[in-house]
Specification:
The complex is a heterodimer. By secondary structure, chain A is an all-alpha fold. Chain A contains 23 helices and two strands. Chain B is 38% helix and 17% strand. Chain B has 13 helices and nine strands. In chain B, strands 1, 2, 3, 4, 5, 6, 7, 8 and 9 form a nine-stranded mixed beta sheet that branches. In chain B, helix 2 links the parallel strand 1 and strand 2. The chains are: A mainly alpha, B alpha/beta.
Chain lengths: 543, 357
Amino acid sequence: MRLLRRVPLVLVVLVPLAAIGVFFVLPFVGMIHRGLWPAGHLDIGATLDVLGRSRTRSVLWFTAYSAALSTAGAVLLGVPAAYCCYRLRFPGRDLVRTLALVPFVMPTVVVGVAFNRLFADGEPFAWLGSEQGPTAIVAAMVFMNVGVVMRTVGSAWAGMDVRRAQAAAVLGASPAQVWWTVTLPALAPVVVAAASVVFLFCATSFGIVLVLGGLRYANVESEIYLLTTQELDLGSAAALSILQLLLIVALLWLVGRVRRQQVDHAVAAARTPALRDLPVLGVGVATFGYLLLPVLTLVSASLHRDGGWSWGNYRALATTGDDTLVVPATQALANSLVIAVEATAMAMCLGAMVAYIVSRRPADPRLARLIAVFDGLFMLPLGVSAVTVGFGFLITLDRPPLDLRSSSVLIPIAQAMVALPLVVRTVAPVWRGIDDRLRQAAASLGAGRWRVFASVDLAIGWRPLLAAAGFGFAVSLGEFGATSFLARSDHPTLPVVIYRLLGHPGVNNFGMAMAASTVLAAATAGTIVLVERLRVGSLGALG
Amino acid sequence: MAVRPSDRNKTAPRAIALVALAALGSTALAACGTHANDTKTIVVATHDSWAMPKKVIAAFEKSSGYTVKIEEQGDAGELTNKLVLTKDSPIADAVYGIDNTFASRAVDAGVLQKYVATDLPTAAKKYALAGASAGRLTPVDYGDVCVNADDQWFSARHLAEPRTFDDLTKPAYKNLLVTPAATTSSPGLAFLIATISAKGAGWQGYWKKLLANGAKVDPGWSEAWEGDYTDGGGGGKRPIVVSYSSSPPDTIAKGATRPRTSVLLGTCFRQIEYAGVVTGAANTAGAKAFVNFMVSRAAQQTMPANMYVYPVNPAAKVPASWAKWATPATKPWPMAPATITAKRTEWLSQWRDLVSG
């Protein structure tokens, strides 16, 4: 009987495992297998050979240094921004917090295009260097990730007990001493966690490096793409995919370790800025300007047609743009919205189950370790090569009962896999924070099992659940990497259409791409603004 | 601190589990509903530059009784590699868009059935593959990748336009050339092959001089033409660009009668695109009909305006502006498809070292 009662719990573990197994692990392993066992036997020598090539070394080096520089940039700008937006109070603060997260959910193709323009001759960033090169790549990655650092660090900072800092100040510590001896040590774990996640994003970035690197500069991910799609060198691609996987596991392990060190959960009132906050505010304003500039460039380009200001590009969205597109861009937007709803529904179902499991705190350390591994498994889609998984779909999901290759349902599934870790990261911390005694109290007052879940977990957790749904929706609206491998031409999403418009000759196509990018950015921003009204601290806080 | 998870709230996971099962179930159903692998449908894998007016396809569907399903699979390389990877359970019946830089890889891997369009005009046979690769791909169209120059820019400065590869390395043309990258762009690769064909073993030395003379390498054709070229609409600063011999008509200003851009006809490489029937196709008869359709006059006439390529069928009409201002190269630089397949990786990695060095 007891075993039977455990069936639902077992399902909650098994269903997400099955989903990630079929739609993530299987394609990945399939592709690796094809690469490493080309003629039915393992060719270790050739694999090691790949890792020794000078090209591979330069790819690894570029991956490491571009990601490290980008992470440093995002932290240097993100921490002061966190102070401004979470410790200080000023009009429009909530809007700034919201907008800072928008670059993170913007499609990478769009970010790439925006920075390509910013670095072109005669544009604001031209003095920094060529538009294809390390500078532009790092600038774009910083742009995308400042918000992640700001929100992760900010939500911890907002909850930090100020009394220790006050005590230090009363005891005669200068503001600098307070910062170095009290505040920074308390924040350090969160900063390290945020930095690791950002490093993960930067090290596996695909679209940006492809658009801005011109493959003179390639990171591991774009090299895997090149090896797979152009050179059909699956062995080398597999070797790099495995290397990338190891890197991600190491980073996740680091994040997990750091996360275990708890930060306080006091609520400190934010205060109005004083004169001494001026330098920090200066950095904050500059950072905000930096986040706004690429977006403004995009909007301005979208409003130019035939050499003058015009709404023409937006009007053209209802057409197929000289037959460049199979369906009008507006139809693609509708597809995007429908697919995003489907993807969000799947990500929420699976995410709620995963979050339910990982928010348990069993007394048995072995069980706790198992849960940590379970947690880590569902973080993997954040970093593992979308190219490898995308091609893996082609060769593993090709026969019954899993003949899904040509089915349109793969797109929402792939997007759900990408959104899943973000959903879990938003919901799990809140559920983990619920005191179990609340549930026990409810039960002893006579509440049934469902009633306990509804009046405790759901009552406390509906905001994060809804926020996670919105976040997942925004991410899936802008998802490009996995979708580009799966989308069919008669049923494209908006990011795919933008990429297509950019790849086809014609000034009008370019203008349409800019207009479509602006619409997409506005849709994702709008979603984030709505979600932000729910005031969930862990939204976009990925540490 | 750690409290044992309460045993009381078992219904919660059950509810979630049910919702999830329902979601997965409907997913599976949706998947079954969209599957179309019958003999009435022709699934065609194409490159992502595919463009053809709907009414032309509809007319073919009406006359043949088939339904055409176009599935874009990335650029020519990605398209070829996807077919090779899925050889055991093919993703399409017919393929269009494999070009002469990838043709012999596809043929060697055995992903194409022996078939050439029965009504391929005799005049088009010169574009077909020769030797061991013959008989598996039907030539459909071609495009000449050539260096283009902005006439207005040069005449305003009383500077003679460059004419040859060697001119491009002269100090008079320093910092004026922009080209898409050979590693990420097919016109970029075509330009590289043209230089290799022209310079032979000395091509790396030529590229060193080209780069030392300030040649700029962009990731794709759009970035080069729309971003950096002076007459591509994006207000760029470089008056020499690697593009197509069919690019000039795009630079005819409103109300003007002649283009502002001309072509350096001694710098061209010809890209030929093919169609074929995929090995193991569920609908071989349909695929053959589609390959025939692609060389028919109705399909061929749409190609200049939609895909910016020349039709192989001489009976196909081309737009007036093309007939006048977009003449194909008379003597493009030659390179055998088998050589390209054999040397591509080596060339690209050497080229990459040159541009990043």
